[in-house]
Design a protein that fits this description.
Blueprint lengths: L1 E6 L5 H16 L3 E6 L10 E3 L3 H14 L7 H14 L3 E4 L9 H10 L4 E4 L41 H13 L3 E5 L2 H9 L7 E3 L16 H7 L5 E6 L10 H10 L5 E8 L1 H4 L7 E5 L4 H10 L2 E4 L8 H8 L4 E4 L4 H4 L5 E4 L4 H13 L8 H6 L2 H24 L1
């Protein structure tokens, strides 16, 4: 089977790592797999093609700000993607994140439908059924067609115009023509897709998977305690790109650290910009810059006594999966699909913004003793191999269905 994965990133960021794992497992299973991605550094791996042109991505972002339209530009990058598809001739396409200023959606979806290529579309966020938003938060306009957008200044931002009704209508029309199966990583997002205006929805839930074999498993970490001078303290870890942003809950994390400043706890926040990491923080916080070193990140997860997440909205946050697979319990805010990642008692979640309840959840996790065996079922459920096998069954279903259709 010839499988083509399309995403914004490859082997970086949460969706880029997921695509890398799927691509690697597909090749290991004897399939001919390829990846086309739009942003990030070029990779020298077989059938891995960065079709996005960096200068055009920047132009796309600028035009979005000026016109209010996104997913409508990048003609040269999109032509490179279509040329690759013409040559590779995939039996099935697995689409992940198509936003972030790197592809023109209409020619991409028109090509897929006109060639009757089965499409698996994993929706990692809500972009597919909103005018522009990845997470509309408390806005409900997507249920009725968007327009009068209250979030024009949020990503993907525009300075002047509101074309969210048009962009949603266009996306719905393009999706309607696809021989498509939708995958959601969480039950929460699947329920949102069902409530959306997407027609003829065939939705499956497949949790994201991570490398639990060679990266995310309990590690030795004493060298990190020596490095940071941490002795006889409980460690609470938070990690996310742009961790101090409002979306990732930077202010909430600071409030949590303030609420627990008299406890014997050291907080470690990973994911700051270099300038932020050099800033001034309370004594109970160790600020660290963002890292792409997954081995090192797994050591921090293993060292932590509790992992905490304060995002205002997530689908199925990979950081929670990584933490629990390294043997660390989780506490956080109950937003989106976050609570699904780690069942109680390994996961304890509080209403968003309730710092006192979150502090209580953290303290409960720090006082509770868990056995290594408590984590085993989750490590199996979140392994990248389990994720791939679930997707492979869908690929077989769709490709066999297409062959039967062509025989008639």
């Amino acid at each position: 089977m010839k499988i083509l994965y399309i995403n914004v990133l490859f082997n970086s960021g949460s969706t880029g790592k997921i695509v890398y794992e799927l691509y690697s497992h597909a090749r290991a299973e004897g399939h001919e797999a390829a990846v086309c991605y739009g942003r990030g550094r070029k990779r020298n791996e077989e059938n891995v093609f960065k079709f996005g042109l960096d200068w055009e991505t920047k132009l796309h972002a600028l035009l979005t700000r000026l016109t209010g339209l996104t997913g409508c530009f990048s003609p040269f990058s999109t032509a490179r993607l279509i040329a690759f598809m013409d040559t590779f001739k995939p039996d099935i396409i697995h689409l992940h994140e198509p936003h972030a200023y790197f592809v023109n959606l209409r020619p991409l979806f028109d090509y897929i439908s006109s060639h009757n290529i089965p499409l698996v579309y994993t929706m990692h966020c809500e972009f597919a059924f909103t005018g522009k938003c990845g997470h509309p938060l408390r806005c409900e306009n997507w249920r009725t067609g968007c327009g009068n957008c209250p979030c024009l200044s949020d990503y993907p931002k525009t300075f002047f115009f509101d074309f969210t009704a048009k962009m949603l209508s266009d996306k719905l029309g393009l999706l309607k023509k696809q021989n498509m199966l939708i995958v959601s990583p969480s039950v929460w997002l699947a329920s949102r897709i069902k409530q959306s205006l997407i027609e003829n929805k065939d939705i499956r839930v497949i949790p994201n998977g991570i490398d639990t074999k060679s990266i995310f498993y309990p590690r030795a970490y004493e060298h990190l305690k020596i490095k940071h001078g941490i002795e006889n303290k409980k460690i609470v870890l938070a990690a996310a790109p742009g961790i101090m942003s409002s979306h990732k809950g930077g202010a909430e994390l600071l409030r949590l650290a303030k609420a627990l400043e008299n406890e014997n706890i050291k907080f470690i926040f990973i994911g700051m910009s270099p300038a932020e990491a050099r800033g001034s923080f309370p004594e109970n916080i160790i600020p660290l810059a963002h890292t792409e070193n997954q081995q090192q990140l797994a050591e921090y997860y293993s060292m932590a006594d509790c992992f905490v997440i304060c995002s205002d909205m997530e689908n199925l946050p990979t950081t929670c999966l990584e933490a629990v697979c390294c043997g660390t319990p989780v506490a956080g805010y109950d937003t989106g699909g976050t609570k699904e990642t780690v069942p109680s008692p390994l996961g304890r979640f509080a209403p968003y913004g309730d710092t006192e309840a979150l502090a209580e959840s953290v303290m409960l996790q720090l006082k509770t003793s868990f056995e290594p065996s408590d984590y085993e079922s989750l490590r199996n459920a979140y392994s990248s191999k389990s994720m791939y096998k679930a997707y492979e069954a869908l690929y077989d279903q769709l490709v066999c269905g297409r062959k039967e259709h062509l025989k008639r």
